[in-house]
Amino acid sequence: MTDFINAHCHLLTFKFVPDSFFKSRAPIREWLLRRYLTSFAARIATVVLPGNNYDRSHQVLWLLRQNIDRVAEAFVAEMRESGIILATPLMMDFEFAYSKQKSDIDYENQVEKISQACLKYPGELMPFIMFDPRRPGAIALTVNALENLGFLGVKLYPSLGYHPDPDNPYNSKEVNKALNDLYDYCEAENIPITVHCSKGGAYNKAILQSEELCHPANWEPVLKKHPELRLNLAHFGSDEALLDHENALSWANQILKLMKNFANVYADTSYHTKALEKKTKEQYFKVLAELMEDETVAERIIFGTDWLMTRHTWTEGDFCRACDKLSESSRQQIAFNNPLRFLFAEGKLPERIKKFYQANQIKPENLPMWLSVFLA
Ligand SMILES: [Zn+2]
């Protein structure tokens, strides 16, 4: 059996996101009837649509009402059942996307809570902190999380309202400086960055064509300036884009070009529900198998699911079992070798993570066995 590393998932509760996303205190029916500000929220809303895996939908709603430790516990239970030995939950910082709308638990506090929740599963949950260059003090908050709070990497979400290129006039001077500082730091310290890269997900609707801010081509100038950056273009542009990768306009086509030109560019398969749907799964895995025939690409595709966003219909087990359609060697690459290479530069558990565990009385023997086998 293949061991899986899930490089794209989220630990969330209603209190972690602004009210515009989830109306935690409104009755569900009322909540459903609201006009959703984002397709991201609409995606979660499918949670309560009748007739579609009703039980799973209710499990998600129940989970979103628990505290974050309970969500982490449920996630880890599901991971263990499905053969996922490591997952990297990606944080979300919405405070600058929706003006004046804050989550019940402010972001700094969320960072602490995620750090503590993941600390209960050392070597099994290693979170990514989200960096929003518009947040005052974002660099200090991010560096502290990476160096002292057990965070393995950084999550970016440009479609919430900024351009990822620090030389782009779209951004203010302050935003560009923050981005430059982040890329310098991450490149020097070999820190993995996962950036949202599909037309779905959360968008700042106040900004015209905000999805263009997520366009993979925006990364070319960034990578030219920071060629060693470890970058995962999340969702591979989307499953639809992947199936259409031969089309030059497909975001997946652009991502494949970046992979060819830059050594540390990856793409994850999160929210690729076409891998699970009866009508599309044959075609999906046929295309994926074809892509895996290319030597470069074969080392850059990484497994991710997008839990809890996907949990209304699909479990972690569903995503893992779907990969049975891959050849054994491709599955091993996507599920394990590639995410391991993306997450751990030079095959090492970063010193900063070791120090964090040490400071919290976690001894090397408390870590999963496989870590010491695969990571120096
Ligand atoms: Zn996601």
UniProtKB/TrEMBL annotation:
InterPro entries: ACMSD (IPR032465), Amidohydro-rel (IPR006680), Metal_Hydrolase (IPR032466). Residues 111-343 form the Amidohydrolase-related domain. Keywords: Lyase. GO terms for molecular function: carboxy-lyase activity; hydrolase activity. It holds the Pfam family Amidohydro_2. It comes from the Bacteria. This is Amidohydrolase-related domain-containing protein. It comes from candidate division WOR-1 bacterium RIFOXYC2_FULL_41_25.
